[in-house]
Design brief:
Layout: H1 2-69, H2 73-95, H3 99-119, E1 122-125, E2 137-144, E3 153-158, E4 160-163, E5 166-169, E6 171-177
Parallel strand pairs: 2-6
Antiparallel strand pairs: 1-4, 3-6, 4-5
C-alpha cells in the first residue's frame, strides 16, 4: 500500500512541477532577455574599447614617425643662419680683395656655428696631450716621442665631435710610442 501511495504522489508532484514550468519559462524568458541585453552591451563596450586602443596605437605610430622625420627640424633651422653667413662671406670675398674682412666674416661664421653646436649639445674635441682612447680617437699614425709617455696624443689632425656622450666623429690623431733603443750590431 505504501508503494501505491508513493506512485500516486509522484504523478501529483510531476503535475505540480509542470504547472509551475510555464510561469518559470516566462520568468526565464525575461531573465534571458536581460542577460542577452547585458551581453550585447558588454560586447559593444569591448568593441569600442578595442577600437579606441587601435586608434590610440595608430596615433602613437604617427607621432613617432613624425618625431623621427622632423627630429632635426630645430637644428636645421639654426643651421640655415650659418649657411646664410657662409653665402654672404663668399659674396664679400668675391667683391672685395680685403683679406681682413674675409677673415673677420669667416670668424663670425665659425662663432655662429659653434653657438649652434653648443645649443644642441655638440662638443668639439681636441685631445692633444691626453691619453689615447680608441673609443673617442682614431690613430692615424704613431711616432716616437721621448717627451710624452706612450699612448699619448701628440697631435690632432682633425677634431672629433660628440653629441652629448655619444661620439659623432672620432678625432684623428697622432699617438706617441716609446722610443726604440738603438740596436746593437753584434757582428762588429
Amino acid at each position: 500500500m505504501s508503494e501505491q501511495r508513493e506512485s500516486q504522489e509522484q504523478p501529483e508532484e510531476l503535475e505540480t512541477r509542470n504547472d509551475e514550468a510555464p510561469e518559470a519559462e516566462g520568468g526565464t524568458d525575461d531573465r534571458l532577455q536581460e542577460l542577452e541585453a547585458l551581453a550585447e552591451e558588454r560586447r559593444d563596450q569591448a568593441l569600442r574599447a578595442q577600437a579606441e586602443l587601435e586608434n590610440q596605437r595608430r596615433r602613437f605610430e604617427r607621432e613617432l614617425e613624425n618625431a623621427h622625420k622632423y627630429a632635426m627640424e630645430k637644428f636645421a633651422a639654426e643651421m640655415l643662419e650659418v649657411g646664410d653667413s657662409l653665402e654672404l662671406g663668399l659674396q664679400a670675398a668675391r667683391e672685395s680683395k680685403d683679406v681682413e674682412r674675409i677673415i673677420e666674416g669667416a670668424e663670425l661664421t665659425l662663432k655662429n656655428l659653434t653657438r649652434v653646436f653648443e645649443k644642441f649639445g655638440i662638443q668639439s674635441e681636441d685631445p692633444t696631450g691626453q691619453r689615447f682612447d680608441p673609443e673617442r680617437h682614431q690613430a692615424m699614425s704613431m711616432q716616437e716621442d721621448p717627451e710624452n709617455p706612450p699612448n699619448t696624443v701628440v697631435a690632432t689632425m682633425q677634431k672629433g665631435y660628440r653629441l652629448q656622450d655619444r661620439v659623432l666623429r672620432p678625432a684623428m690623431v697622432v699617438v706617441s710610442k716609446a722610443p726604440t733603443s738603438p740596436s746593437i750590431d753584434e757582428s762588429a
